[in-house]
Amino acid sequence: MQSFLRAFRTVSAYSAASPRLYSNGNTYKAFTSPLGRPQSASRTTLSGSRSFHQSSYTARQAFNYQRFNASRNIFQRWAARPTFYYEVGGIGAVGGGVYIANLEEVPVSHRRRFNVVSPATEAETGKQMYQQTMQEFGNRLLPPSHPKSRMVQRVLNRLIPHSGLDGEEWEVHVIEDPMKNAFVIPGGKVFVFSGILDVCKGDDGLAAVLGHEIAHNVAHHAAERMSSSFILMGIALIGSAIIGLDFGFGRMIIDFAFLRPGSRAQEQEADYIGLLMMAESCYDPAAAMGLWARMEEEEKNAPPQFLSTHPSNHARLEKIRQWLPEAEVKRESGDCAATGSYASDFRRTTQMPQYEFR
User: Fold this and answer.
1) 338 has pLDDT over 80
2) Fewer Cβ in 10 A, N or C end of the chain?
3) Average pLDDT, the chain
4) Residue 186 backbone dihedrals phi, psi, to 5 degrees
5) H helices, E strands: number in the chain
6) In sequence order, what DSSP letters do the residues of 30-76 get, joined into one string?
7) Cβ contacts of 357 within 8 Å, gap of 6 or more
8) Mean pLDDT lowest among 46-60, 99-113, 211-225
9) Cα separation of 346 and 324, whole Å?
10) Which of 76-80, 270-274, 328-332, 346-350 has the lowest mean pLDDT?
11) Cα gap 209→213, rounded to integer Å
């Protein structure tokens, strides 16, 4: 269950912005003694600490070497069995059969993927995630009558009929916080940090954000990520047991070789599904280009793409540019032109004010 919550947190984060850091002054105070010990004392402390870490590293090396030898002996004895190849083939056949039996197609994108987590499990975990989120941010939620909450609710009401998730119990929560982020918990619980509304610049930009987040739920990305973790962590454990590979090192290799690329692929898929969803809901899909251009300006110091769970903003812009013609066709195939004309006439007749959120 905890692994699913970690998977959901990874998938649901909308922006790849760096975490908040303490100021240099606070960092300095945290590592500086209030007693102001002499330099010699500090040197002695550092020397003792260095000796401790060196001895710990040496002990760890010895342990890993012994484990490697033990694992190698176990593997050699297994390989010497006359039925070794049959056993390996049987394990591979069972594993392959389980994998193939649990392949399914992602809605809209039609990508084939492995998933063993049921919708019921996903929904139950979503309830736990919702409770945790409310405990953390419940005291900073804006009331439903607030203009920012009404804006999010208005955009959501247009997107949901085109999401295929009409049966969910949708709730909107706007958190008064400068963070530029948003996420949707399985079960229809929408959380938007007020800071991202300044980047959205209106309903169309917000539709790109919410469409992306709803798309993660349409594709059940959190469940897929946990399912992949079952296989990949199992491989890491087997590698650790058979060849003596350090489990932490093996997990790091799997993270950079499989989990992070897989997460970036899911983010890209959510961009695609969300773009078509907002277009079908009669929002301007070109607004997604402006949104990601502004996000690129906000995150100039973002880490390289290969280190991140999200694609770079530049890469997202290029992909959205490729998908725009398809999104425009989706928008024009509906009655969006007549709807937009009616809305414009109504606004001019009633002289409705245009709100800016700060």
Assistant:
1) no
2) C
3) 78
4) -50, 130
5) 14, 5
6) HHS-TT---HHHHHHHHHHHHHHHHHHHHHHHHHHHHHHHHHHHHHH
7) 147, 148, 151, 194, 197, 198
8) 46-60
9) 28
10) 346-350
11) 6
Query: 173 φ, ψ to 5°?
Result: -135, 120
CA 298 to chain CA centroid, nearest Å = 19
The helix (H) or strand (E) run that includes residue 190 is: strand 189-193
Q: Give pLDDT tens digits for 118-172.
A: 988 988 888 999 999 999 999 999 999 999 999 999 999 999 999 999 889 999 9
Angle between helices 260-280 and 203-218 (to 10 degrees): 120
> Contact at 8 Å (CB) between 216 and 189?
no
Rounded Cα distance between 246 and 135, Å, is: 37
pTM as predicted: 0.73
Question: Quick one: which H or E segment has residue 189?
Answer: strand 189-193
Query: DSSP secondary structure string, 140-178?
Result: GBPPTTSHHHHHHHHHHHHHGGGTT-TTS--EEEEE--S
Residues in Cβ contact with 210 at an 8 Å cutoff, skipping those fewer than 6 apart: 152, 155, 156, 159, 182, 184, 190, 192, 274
Q: DSSP letters of 71-121?
A: HHHHHHHHHTSTTHHHHHHHHHHHHHHHHHHTEEE-TTT--EEE----HHH
What is the C-alpha to C-alpha distance for residues 166 and 119, in angstroms, rounded to an integer?
15
Active-site amino acid positions: 213
Give residues with Cβ within 8 angstroms of 40, minimum separation 6: none
What's the token pair of residue 266? 């899911």
